[in-house]
## 1
Amino acid sequence: MTLIDPEKADLKTAVETASSAERAGSSAIMVGGSTLVSNRDLDEIVKGLKEVVRIPVILFPNNLVGISPYADAIWFMSLLNSSNPYYFIEAQALGASLVKRYGLEAIPMAYLIVGEGCAAGFVGHARPISYRYPAIAAAYALAGVSLGMRFVYLEAGSGAKEPVPPEMVSLVKQTTGVPIIVGGGIRSGAAAREAAEAGADIIVTGTILEEASRVETRIEEIVAGLHARS
């Protein structure tokens, strides 16, 4: 899945990126960012994306301003390792009625900040789970699944120096048995293949597309890496 941050891409760039991502094999476009504060910018980009792509456009909210009526679905996520209850239940309670009113498909997801944490960890008041302790990540993930969450997202953070290690991905997958999403630090087909072989079902790419001059080529490399899993 390709992640587009409305605070880092104008409408033209977002539309071009999404079109290239669809051609290259992305399964969906995620829209959101750790510091998004403008609902108007979000609505504009989501409406623009819906006009040019056929794959789903899924909201990836950092807060209530991350909800738009123009998307297909929303990751209804709880940041389980936040020290602030706002990010694991209060924002969800405030936003639930809006999600229902808009008719968005709510996809329950356990969201975990791991490694350095980056901006997402800072904004979400998270206690990032060290890569050295995969069992802790697995315990949090299992708690989320036991509460009814259908996906687990292991988030290294935008611009992470190192991706989530295979050992952590593998243990979380074995422990929960649900689809695992991995994001942050995956910049090559080889890294995507390693994550997939460890048990990742979905790879999220974002920062490499902001840095790349040829978006389609970079996504094709990631997709090829996923298909090359042993």
Note: The mean pLDDT is 92.
## 2
Amino acid sequence: MTASPSDFYDDFAGDYHLIFENWEASMTRQAAAIASILQRECPAAGATVLDCACGIGTQTLGLARLGFRITGSDVSRGAVERARAEAALRRLDIPFYAADMRKLDELPASGFHAVISMDNALPHLLSEADMAQAAGQIRGKLRSGGIFIASIRDYDEILPQRPVVQGPIFYSDAGKRRIVFQVWDWQDERRYAFHMYLTRETSTGWANFHGASAYRAVLRDEITGILNARGFTNVQWRFPRESGFYQPIVIATAAAA
């Protein structure tokens, strides 16, 4: 049985940073890759950014440290609470809100220069209608000429293979082991249950986390078509060798209203 994305990430918020070998280094690396796109595509002074799938703040915190005026939102209240606490620890002034990306009109701010949605957040939307609704809401938060940036797994490459396991990945924390792996249970040609397993060695023994949620494998042409139909133009794709980001990235421009 799978949990909703909000419930899954509520449960995982306290441990999410452990899927990275070094969360701080990942923050810095990912922020640098995203910043290079932002600076090229919307170079306006004082550009404002909405991270509409901010999670515990992996991209939000990194971009704020680079000086971007960023707002974070996420469907998971637990993740938002963790992101807010991490921002406070770093003395970063970032507004955070709990919001489903299909209902971004609930957020008080709009007119952003950019909206981002990274780390394969879009495929948590399990139908084309849900994704189209989210695209329309994202467009509504952008000023004309603003940009949307999202990253997804490369499902164009993954779907023919339909892998069932990702990992395991082994890390070491001061001599103690940490193991991260995923199991994918395919439900049909597109949908799969995503199981996250995290096992780590502590001073008192082994600690384990298991959570499951759902994804829908979405192809690049499908995303391009939805964005074109929901008020975006100039849809482009960038791949890791070009962008420096670990997943394919889509970039789209908000058409004039």
Note: The chain has two domains: 5-155+218-254, 157-215.
